[in-house]
Write a structure and sequence with these properties.
331 residues, alpha+beta, six-stranded antiparallel sheet, 11 helices, 37% helix, elongated, disordered N terminus
C-alpha cells in the first residue's frame, strides 16, 4: 500500500482548534434553538414566554438558561430556569431530544402541583408568608451576584440573608431569597422582618451543642439543648472547643446569631468567646480566656482547605463575641 505522510505545522493547529470551537458552538446553538421550538410546541406557550439568557446577561448567572414564563396574574410570572449546558451535555451523552423534553414537562407538572407553587402566590402578602421567613448565612465576597437585590445584613464578611420556606419539591425542602421588589410590597420595617425571621429560624431549627465523641458513636445523636435552663453540663474551655449547630445540622452556623444564643453561651463560658466558622453548617465556639485567635485562624485555614466543600465555605476570619457589649466583630 502507498503511504503518504501528512504533516501539520504548529502554526496551522490554532486554526484547526478554532474551527472545532466554531463547530461546537454551532451545535450548541442548534440544540438551544431546537429545544426552545419543541418546548413552545409541548407547552403551548407564546413565543415571548420562552427566552434564552446567556450567563453574562444581567443579572449574571452561573450558566446559560432557558427561561419559561408562566403568567399567574397581571404583572406576576412564575419562571422556571433550565440550565442549558447540563441539558446539552445530557444530549451529547445520548439522550434524545424527545427524552429531554419529556423530562422537562414532567418536572414542570411536578412544580405546578407542588406546595411551593402555591406558596409562591403568597410572597407579596407579609401576613401569609411571615411564619416561613428564616435566615441563612453566605459569604459576602463569594456571593455578590447572588446577593444582588437581596435583603440582608452583614457582620464582617458574613451576610445574614432573608429567605422564605416554599415547601417540599421532589422530597427536598425548597426556599427562595426575598428580593427588594417583594420586600417593598410588604410595606414593613426591615428590622421587624429580620427579627421575625431570626425567631422563626430558632424554632424551625433550634440551636444545639454537639459533642464529637457522642456524634461519632451515635449517628442518631441529637445534640445538647444548652438553651434549656436546666442544662447544667459545663462547656469545654480547652483547645478543642464546642461545636454549635442546629437540630437539623443544615445551615447550622446561623445558630450563634439567633436570639439569646450568644448571651447564653457567654454565661456558660463565663466570658466572651471566639467563633470559628468551619462551614455554613456549624461553628466552633472557644472561650476567650483559653484560646489564641492566631492559632484558631491557622486551624480554620487548614480545615477549609482540607475538608470544607467550596459550596459550604463561609469565611476565613475568626470572629469574637464581647459579653459586655453584645457585639460581634472579626479578628
Amino acid at each position: 500500500p502507498l503511504f503518504i505522510p501528512i504533516y501539520t505545522s504548529w502554526a496551522c493547529r490554532p486554526n484547526i482548534q478554532k474551527e472545532e470551537e466554531i463547530y461546537m458552538e454551532k451545535n450548541y446553538e442548534t440544540f438551544v434553538n431546537n429545544l426552545r421550538e419543541r418546548l413552545l410546541k409541548a407547552t403551548g406557550y407564546q413565543e415571548e414566554m420562552i427566552c434564552y439568557k446567556t450567563a453574562e446577561e444581567y443579572p449574571p448567572t452561573d450558566g446559560d438558561r432557558l427561561l419559561l414564563k408562566n403568567r399567574q396574574r397581571e404583572g406576576v410570572y412564575e419562571v422556571c430556569a433550565l440550565y442549558v449546558a447540563d441539558l446539552y451535555e445530557w444530549h451529547q451523552n445520548g439522550a434524545t431530544m424527545e427524552r429531554i423534553v419529556q423530562e422537562i414537562m414532567h418536572r414542570l407538572d411536578a412544580i405546578v402541583r407542588s406546595e411551593c407553587f402555591e406558596k409562591s402566590k403568597d410572597l407579596e402578602d407579609y401576613e401569609k408568608i411571615k411564619d416561613d421567613l428564616f435566615i441563612r448565612l453566605l459569604n459576602v465576597e463569594k456571593n455578590r451576584a447572588e446577593l444582588d437585590d437581596a435583603i440582608f445584613r452583614t457582620i464582617g464578611d458574613i451576610a445574614l440573608v432573608l429567605y422564605a420556606r416554599m415547601g417540599e419539591l421532589d422530597g427536598c425542602s425548597t426556599s427562595v431569597k426575598i428580593k427588594q421588589h417583594i420586600f417593598e410590597k410588604w410595606d414593613k420595617d426591615e428590622q421587624m422582618a429580620f427579627n421575625d425571621a431570626l425567631l422563626n429560624t430558632y424554632f424551625i431549627s433550634p440551636p444545639r451543642i454537639y459533642c464529637w465523641e457522642k456524634l461519632i458513636c451515635n449517628m442518631d445523636y441529637e445534640g445538647e439543648n444548652f438553651m434549656n435552663l436546666l442544662f447544667d453540663e459545663p462547656l469545654k474551655k480547652s483547645a478543642i472547643g464546642n461545636c454549635l449547630s442546629t437540630a437539623t445540622r443544615t445551615n447550622g452556623a446561623v445558630a450563634v446569631f439567633l436570639p439569646g444564643v450568644a448571651q447564653r453561651l457567654s454565661d456558660l463560658l463565663d466570658g466572651g468567646f471566639y467563633m470559628v466558622f468551619t462551614s455554613i453548617h456549624e461553628v466552633m465556639i472557644h472561650s476567650e480566656k483559653t484560646a489564641d485567635p492566631k492559632d484558631l485562624k491557622r486551624v480554620l485555614a487548614d480545615t477549609v482547605r482540607d475538608t470544607t466543600p467550596d459550596e459550604d465555605f463561609l469565611t476565613y476570619y475568626v470572629y469574637h463575641y464581647n459579653r459586655e457589649t453584645g457585639r460581634f466583630t472579626y479578628c
